[in-house]
Design goal:
Layout (H helix, E strand, L loop, with lengths): L1 H32 L5 E3 L7 H14 L10 H5 L4 H5 L2 H6 L2 E5 L4 E5 L2 H9 L8 H4 L14 H12 L4 H23 L7 H18 L16 H14 L1 H7 L1 H7 L8 H28 L9 H14 L8 H31 L2 H14 L9 H4 L4 H13 L7 E2 L5 E5 L2 E5 L4 E4 L1 H4 L3 H4 L44 H16 L2 E5 L8 H14 L1 E3 L3 E3 L7 E5 L1
Parallel strand pairs: 1-2, 3-7
Antiparallel strand pairs: 2-3, 4-7, 5-6, 8-11, 9-10
């Protein structure tokens, strides 16, 4: 009898949830109809946490159903990063703007470059949705989680941290680490740890340029035992690798439950790691405060040092407000979180594209050999980085096809109007606004008939000589790799310097190819297999990434 009552109660709860969801969907649909744009309806919001855990698995079965049952709005638009697979197709069907309605929200998708740029300029009308970014407040509020005057104050301070002095550190560390990584790869028969090794490189660059902690590169099979400095590195790495869980629970919750858990449990370990990392940041903060008192102190220009100094200067100004201690910690975490996986995943995509395109490697090497001679320790950021445009073009082209962190915005508490290709559209409050990156960045109107092909040379003007070439003028709003407007990525130059320096070290004298899976596989077949892996096996985990790059081992050979 008790079991029957429980089942009856469960049925009532489930029915109530379904009814609430249906009514919410109907309400949002009625509101969306007033906008006057094409609408697609999906019964579950694609950001629903429970749905995110099963979306791909469930849809893999639903798509096998015949006809409309397997090919409809639910199967096309109801999973993470569906935009990357459909790219321009929805806008070809529905125009430059359309709406997706879910029980939770109204989603506005836009692929008009001019309208996109207007939205980026109107920062107060189209802010970031702080409801979705507040999980980044792991160690304190930061630039990604605040709006209004708080955002202006933080942006002003953080913008001063990314300067040429810091970029010189990024340049030299990237060259040194890339050389060590190349030496490790050259010793392997084939490399299955490309993605992991690139994450290590990116982590070490951040450690050096962010905190002044410098490490030698260690490949997957050459890890040494932990030392005091390695404990810091490992704690940062563990935090970044488990950031979803840490962001979901928060350090405060971890600290509360950890005493009641066995020490071997993951949550207990993460609590210890968060506490250790917090202590490290506190110690560094106190040290940098003492250092910045002495204006003539000479040392490495790290992000932490710049952040503390800029905050103190701003606090002492007549109109400025510096960052609080917790905001400095919050922004240091944000900069590490944003700068680690984003660059590492872009590196991985680029490495596999290059392995499948030997002609691009030759094109890249031609520039590097023209611009750089001698040993890498003699290569200079100020004189050499600006000349390595082909190296940067590889990064730009990779981000064009695989934007690792698409930025979403929303309409605030008041409705707003927007001009889209000569038509005035009124968007209701709380509407999510999604720039259609994957569509506008592969539109043949702006990128030519081979828009879906990975071809870095499209970024470079024809007729120039290596080292003296210029970038093509790209229409504003057709490339959004680092977002646009006032809220573009403050670490854009940081990531570019890291990428270009690494490419220069890797491809001046070496080349990379896919390792054949068997004796009969030709080079052309191996390269086609790698391209297929990129296209078919890429999806977001937290960020967009190649899921199983180890399935395509790579081989490094000296030219």
């Amino acid at each position: 009898m008790a079991a029957v009552i429980m089942l009856y109660g469960l049925a009532i709860v489930v029915s109530a949830l379904i009814l609430h969801s249906a009514l919410s969907l109907l309400r949002n649909y009625i509101v969306a109809r007033r906008i006057g744009l094409p609408i697609r309806i999906i019964p579950i919001d694609h950001t629903n946490p429970l749905w995110l855990a099963v979306d791909r698995k469930v849809l893999s079965y639903v798509k096998k159903l015949p006809g409309f049952l397997g090919d409809n709005s639910f199967t096309r638009y109801n999973f993470r990063a569906w935009e990357m697979y459909d790219r321009l197709r929805p806008h070809q069907e529905m125009g430059p703007a359309f709406i997706i309605v879910t029980p939770a929200r109204i989603w506005f998708y836009l692929a008009s470059p001019d309208a996109l740029m207007e939205c980026f300029r109107r920062r107060t009308d189209f802010p970031r949705c702080v409801e979705m970014t507040e999980i980044l407040n792991v160690f304190g509020k930061n630039l990604s989680t605040v709006e209004g005057q708080q955002w202006k104050a933080q942006r002003k301070v953080i913008a001063t941290c990314f300067n040429d002095q810091n970029h010189k550190v990024v340049w030299s560390e990237s060259l040194s680490l890339a050389n060590d990584m190349l030496a490790y790869w050259a010793r392997q028969v084939s490399v299955t740890t490309t993605a992991e090794d690139l994450r290590t490189l990116s982590l070490h660059v951040l450690s050096g340029a962010g905190f002044g902690k410098f490490f030698k590169f260690e490949g997957h099979t050459e890890r040494s035992s932990a030392s005091v400095s390695a404990n810091y590195k490992n704690s940062l790495q563990m935090i970044l690798e488990n950031c979803v869980l840490i962001m979901a629970l928060g350090p405060a919750s971890l600290y509360k439950v950890a005493p009641y858990l066995p020490a071997s449990w993951k949550l207990a370990k993460l609590a210890d790691i968060c506490a250790a990392f917090q202590k490290y940041m506190t110690d560094q903060y106190e040290e940098e405060k003492r250092v910045t008192v002495h204006e003539n102190t000479v040392g490495t220009e790290t992000l932490m040092r710049s952040l503390v100094r800029a905050s103190q200067v701003e606090a002492l100004s007549t109109t400025g407000v510096g960052l609080s201690e917790s905001e400095i910690y919050g922004n240091m975490f944000m900069l590490n979180f944003a700068g680690h996986d984003t660059t590492a995943h872009t590196f991985t995509f680029a490495m596999y594209f290059l392995a499948a395109n030997p002609c691009v490697q030759d094109w890249l090497s031609e520039e590097i050999r023209t611009v750089l001679d001698g040993e890498s320790k003699d290569w200079q950021y100020s004189s050499h980085f600006p000349k390595l445009k082909r190296c940067l073009a590889v990064m730009l082209e990779t981000l064009r096809l695989y934007t690792v962190v698409p930025v979403s915005k929303w309409v605030g508490n008041q409705e707003v109007t927007l001009q889209v290709d000569g038509r005035t559209i009124t968007l209701p409050p709380k509407t999510m606004f999604i720039p259609s990156y994957a569509a506008v960045q592969t539109d043949s109107k702006y990128w030519g008939p081979e828009a879906l092909e990975w071809r870095p040379s499209r970024w470079i003007q024809e007729g120039g000589k290596p080292g003296h070439e210029q970038f093509n003028d790209i229409k504003k709003g057709t490339f959004l790799g680092w977002s646009e407007g006032a809220r573009d990525c403050p670490g854009k130059k940081f990531s570019q310097v890291e990428f270009v320096a690494s490419m220069a070290a890797l491809f001046r004298d070496w080349r990379v190819d896919p390792a054949p899976l068997h004796d009969k596989e030709t080079r052309e077949e191996a390269r086609a297999r790698v391209l297929d892996l990129i296209e078919q096996d890429s999806a977001p985990v937290l960020l967009l990434q190649m899921l199983h790059p180890e399935k395509a081992p790579l081989v490094w050979k000296k030219k």
